[in-house]
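User: Before I run my own analysis I want an independent prediction to cross-check against. Here's the chain; please return only the structure tokens and, at the end, one sentence I can use as a sanity check.
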Amino acid sequence: MKGFIAFIALALLTASSAFAEGFLTAEGTRLRMDGKPFRAVSVNKWDLFIDYRGVIYDDNMNKSGSKEHALASIKRVKDNGFNVIRFAASGYYPVQNGDWGKPGYFAALDAIVDCAKKEGMYLIPVVLWNPYLYPDTAREPLREMIVNPDSRSRQYAELFAHQLASRYKDETTVLFWELTNELNLQADLETAGEAKYVYFNNNSTDRGAPPMRTGADNFSTMEMAGFMKHIAEIMKRYDPNHLISSGYTLPHPWGYVDNINTDTDEGIADLFARSHPDPIDIISVHYYSGDEKRFGKGDAAEGLGTLKRAADKVGKPFFVGETYLADEPKGAKDSFIDGVFKAIEKYDIPITLMWAVPPGDSGDQLSVLSEDVMAKMREINKAIK
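Assistant: Structure tokens:
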């Protein structure tokens, strides 16, 4: 019997090891793939999925985008020397998500995954890019999705998380899942002294949003953390292979969240720990010019270093999901981005993604990277690998 049990244990261990081949793993604060450190500097193309489906809209609600344009952008990222793309795995507005539940919806995502696989690229799909998507679809306040498990918007979010996890659980082209895009910016708004009734720039009523956000939308950081833990648990249940990142940006600039002073190193680490409960694996920040004044006393490299050290205290890998603004004055931009590149090497930051894409045709909905910056990105990729 002991021999049989040992045989079963060995078989399970062998199967588990084989099954994990090609998937990113977390070992403390490091990311590894097939036993080797995984590091990359690459890009965002947030609208890749809606571009493919042709549901990008201009101000007059004219559609643009195409399958050909979206797939060509994947190849263009590769041809410029980069191998990771972060993007929204759903529509942004309800009007861009109306075909959810129809066969073509996931067929489009399949095509993107297949193209990325062919090109040797990795994808980071973001599950809930616009936090208002499912609340607006359900005609409910955002808070209902966050705190009410019986709400229609919560059930929409859970269903979509389940669909993604179960469909792509064995897909090594998916580098890891990201739950949101900057959801933490919507937390604790009342404590920041914001007006109770707020107009945000994503209140496009002709695209399915209500004309106004109100106090009924508000939630706290700890309520958000509970919601995030729940969605992460659903995804892990159906997909134990992929890591999960939060998708947060930086702590609030007003400094206090649920009585945590995020203007101190200890406070940042405390907030990272509370807002990234298990099974969330990766701590996410978005880092733009100006953020170094809060965290690095004006030094862009030291600002990222402060954030990385806080993540290290929590014991989870650190991910810069967005950085860089292409429309800043050249001198300020170069100084900031040079500091980011310095921090990547100095503080051993695993993955950093630019909020921009390589130059392409005018159909791109993003700012584009200059040749100088791309050359620096290629240099840093060579150095860290």
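Sanity check: The two ends are 47 Å apart (CA to CA).
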